[in-house]
């Protein structure tokens, strides 16, 4: 996988290319920088070559996560060039059909953190599984696995049986059992009212496929990652595994129905479209003028470790500006040669992020 073609550019013009870096498995293994990551980001900053961090991770508000990443990587980063899985959820709070004043159930990470993010996004009535468990302890018939966390973070419910208008999974859930129990209760409810049951959303005229008709709350997941690269030498289950468990249980509960859901994050087009907008805004600030003067980026090098998210997303994305997203797969994360050919072939396979940056810089001349 060595692409020998070189791009051509008239001398002295600004480099019309940029980078998008995945985080887990490319820059970090949880809290530990991957060798070469810090130097690579610093080199691009010195050369004023724009880049964004584009992660399916989350669990902290963008500002908090960027402070955390800056200290772990020892590189000055900002929210201006940072997109994480649930960042686009903030758009669902606002606008004419915004959910900011509705009751939403939020879980993921330790759900209290996800509640804090949701509130910073503008959602005003955020309920967590802990709130529901504390108000209705028998909803979970076994000893609660995270009792002390729940007791510390729970808030009273607005009413004993609130109507939940939407369900959000912001990051990787910790207590899958309790979360799936409560989410399923709401998806089997009449119009999202906690404690009720209806196979037809309470609307007898709905056909039997009424499950998840217009009566039950929509469910939004922030990323589909079945695996991700953490500190353990083998990939760990991500939010996509939680979804697979949820889908399997839903299929059995409903006699074979597919759970209707919205999943965002890489590899989906909306996430890459959003990321390209963030990258172009950042580039304009970094270089002091916008796309109208600089012209569109010719290329974005998407450096990732997961063929199913990073590589697939870049390969499939068709940029409205005609920017080519070139996928570069590293060997420091989810994928390794032991796992066979990548399901989505990258433009290039390299050892690590430093090799990815060197290959791109050499190629761009
Ligand atoms: O939860 C993190 C995981 O899903 C993957 O994150 O940075 O590799 O896209 P990242
Ligand atoms: Mg990754």
In short:
The protein has 365 residues and is of the alpha/beta class. Helix content is 33%, strand content 16%.
What does this molecule look like?
The protein is an alpha/beta fold. Helix content is 33%, strand content 16%. The protein has helices at residues 37-46, 62-73, 90-93, 111-120, 129-135, 147-153, 176-187, 239-253, 269-287, 291-294, 307-316, 353-364, and strands at residues 17-21, 28-29, 32-33, 51-54, 82-83, 103-109, 125-127, 166-173, 219-221, 227-228, 236-237, 262-263, 299-304, 324-330, 348-350. A 6-stranded parallel sheet has the order 5-4-1-13-14-15, with helices on both faces. The chain has a 5-stranded parallel sheet with strand order 7-6-8-9-12. Strands 2-3 form a two-stranded antiparallel sheet. Strand 8, helix 7 (176-187) and strand 9 (219-221) form a beta-alpha-beta unit. Helix 5 packs across helix 6 (147-153). It is elongated, with a radius of gyration of 22 Å. The chain starts with 16 loop residues before the first strand and ends with a helix. Residues 22-25, 55-57, 172, 223, 225, 228, 238, 306 line the site of SN-glycerol-3-phosphate (G3P). This is HAD-like domain-containing protein.
Q: Can you count the beta strands?
A: 15
Give the strand order of the largest sheet, numbering strands 1, 2, ... along the chain.
5-4-1-13-14-15
Mean pLDDT: 91
Helicity, in percent? 25-40%
Unique bound compounds: SN-glycerol-3-phosphate, magnesium ion
What's the helix count?
12
Order of helices and strands: EEEHEHEHEHEHHEHEEEHEHHEHEEH
Task: Summarize the main sheet.
Answer: 6 strands, parallel
Spans where pLDDT lies below 50 across 5 or more residues: 1-9
Tell me the radius of gyration. 22 Å
Q: Strand share of the residues?
A: 15-25%
Morphology: elongated
- Helix and strand composition category: alpha/beta
What distance lies between the first and last C-alpha atoms, to the nearest angstrom? 19 Å
């Amino acid at each position: 996988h060595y692409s020998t073609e070189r791009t051509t550019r008239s001398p002295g013009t600004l480099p019309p290319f940029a980078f998008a870096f995945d985080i887990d498995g490319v820059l970090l293994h949880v809290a530990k920088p991957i060798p070469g990551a810090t130097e690579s980001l610093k080199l691009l900053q010195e050369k004023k070559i724009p880049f964004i961090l584009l992660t399916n991770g989350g669990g902290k508000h963008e500002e908090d996560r960027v402070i955390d990443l800056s200290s772990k990587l020892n590189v000055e980063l900002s929210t201006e060039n940072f997109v994480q899985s649930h960042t686009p959820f903030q758009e669902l709070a606002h606008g004419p059909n915004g959910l900011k004043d509705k009751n939403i159930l939020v879980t993921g990470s330790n759900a209290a953190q996800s509640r804090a993010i949701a509130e910073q996004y503008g959602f005003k009535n955020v309920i967590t599984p802990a709130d529901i468990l504390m108000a209705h302890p028998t909803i979970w018939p076994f000893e609660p696995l995270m009792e002390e966390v729940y007791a510390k973070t729970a808030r009273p419910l607005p009413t004993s049986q609130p109507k939940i208008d939407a369900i959000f999974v912001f990051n990787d859930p910790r207590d899958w059992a309790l979360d799936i129990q409560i989410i399923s209760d709401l998806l089997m409810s009449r119009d999202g009212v906690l404690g009720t049951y209806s196979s037809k959303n309470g609307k007898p005229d709905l056909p039997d496929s009424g499950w998840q008709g217009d009566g039950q709350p929509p469910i939004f997941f922030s990323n589909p990652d079945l695996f991700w690269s953490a500190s353990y030498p083998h990939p760990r289950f991500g939010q996509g595994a939680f979804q697979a468990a949820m889908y399997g249980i839903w299929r059995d509960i409903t006699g074979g129905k597919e759970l209707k859901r919205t999943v965002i994050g890489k590899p989906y087009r909306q996430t890459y479209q959003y990321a390209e907008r963030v990258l172009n805004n950042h580039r304009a600030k970094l270089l002091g003028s916008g796309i109208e003067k600089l012209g569109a980026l010719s290329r974005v090098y998407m450096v990732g470790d997961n063929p199913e998210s990073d590589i697939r997303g870049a390969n499939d994305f068709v940029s409205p500006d005609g920017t080519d997203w070139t996928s570069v797969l590293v060997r420091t994360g989810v994928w390794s040669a032991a796992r066979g050919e990548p399901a989505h072939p990258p433009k290039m396979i390299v050892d690590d992020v430093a090799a990815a940056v060197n290959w791109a810089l050499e190629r761009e001349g």
